[in-house]
Every structure is written in structure tokens, then in C-alpha cells.
Write a sequence for this structure.
């Protein structure tokens, strides 16, 4: 099952150093019944994009908590075994728990903000908690960050991506 794991540049560095992201359980996003109901679309590509957007928002929360991470959203697309996935739509739409560490070999791709998004992402990361609590001005900053598309990279390009930061 393809899942989208919110991450940071620190997470990517750890993935390269140890060969995995963990420990489990890891919170990720995918096409779940709750996401399908919320999004009201049968187009699987659109639903997967919606799950990735939710993971990118999760990345903002991780950036806010990690002073060492670059101010760029990171999402890791992972092909996880169905047996390792626990759907948690009770937490939020599209949420799943991955019950095992994510190994580098399971990474299908990584998605990272370009340099031009950095200032906007920094402001959004600073505002994400207030946005989650309903502050409209903070939500606008988060929405501004969501206006930037994440660039796609193959798993073999992670080191090169990190060198550019």
C-alpha cells in the first residue's frame, strides 16, 4: 500500500545513515475510507494527492518541532505491506499507523519543497499549531505554504537533495 510519511530533512539524513525511519508505529497518510468520504472523488490519483497534501501539513508540524531541519516540507512515499498498516480515520482523515520501521528499500520517492518556498514554509511551520487550533491568520500562512508544489525525487536522489540544502 502506498503511504505518505510526513518528514523533515533531518528524517532524510537519518534514513540515509541508518537505512530506515523508526521506531514504529509511524503516522502516515493514505487513501482511507475517511479520506474518500471527505474528498468525495473516485479518482485514485486525486485521492493520493490529497493524502500527500495531508502529509505535507504533517511535515510542517515536524519542522516546527525540529530546529535543525531545513524549512522545507518533506514527504516520503512508501510502499508498505498491507499487514503493517492500521487505518486510524478516528485521528484524522487519511491517517494510518505503520507498524514497522520504514526501510530505505521501501521508499518509492521523496517530495521536497524547492528553495523558493523556504520563507513561506518557515512562516507556516511557526503558525501550524495555532492554525490547528483555529486561528484564521495562522491558517492563511499554512494555506500559503500549501500553494507550493513539492518536487519529486527518486529514492536514489536523496543524498543529492540533501547536499543542495
Amino acid at each position: 500500500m502506498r503511504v505518505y510519511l510526513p518528514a523533515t530533512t533531518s528524517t532524510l539524513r537519518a534514513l540515509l545513515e541508518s537505512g530506515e525511519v523508526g521506531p514504529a508505529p509511524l503516522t502516515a497518510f493514505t487513501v482511507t475510507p475517511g479520506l474518500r468520504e471527505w474528498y468525495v472523488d473516485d479518482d485514485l490519483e486525486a485521492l493520493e494527492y490529497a493524502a500527500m497534501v495531508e502529509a505535507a501539513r504533517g511535515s510542517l508540524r515536524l519542522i516546527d518541532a525540529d530546529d535543525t531541519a531545513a524549512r522545507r516540507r518533506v514527504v516520503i512515499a512508501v510502499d508498505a505491506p498491507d499487514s503493517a498498516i492500521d487505518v486510524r480515520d478516528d485521528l484524522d482523515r487519511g491517517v494510518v499507523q505503520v507498524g514497522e520501521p520504514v526501510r530505505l528499500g521501501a521508499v518509492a520517492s521523496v517530495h521536497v519543497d524547492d528553495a523558493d518556498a523556504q520563507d513561506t514554509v518557515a512562516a507556516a511551520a511557526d503558525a501550524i499549531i495555532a492554525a490547528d487550533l483555529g486561528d484564521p491568520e495562522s491558517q492563511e500562512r499554512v494555506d500559503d505554504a500549501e500553494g507550493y508544489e513539492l518536487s519529486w525525487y527518486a529514492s536514489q536522489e536523496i543524498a543529492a537533495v540533501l547536499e543542495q540544502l
Observations:
- The CA atoms of residues 10 and 69 lie 5 Å apart.
- Strands lie at 2-7, 20-21, 26-29, 74-79, 85-87, 95-98, 102-103, 107-112, 151-154.
- Residues 2-155 form one domain.
- The longest strand covers residues 2-7.
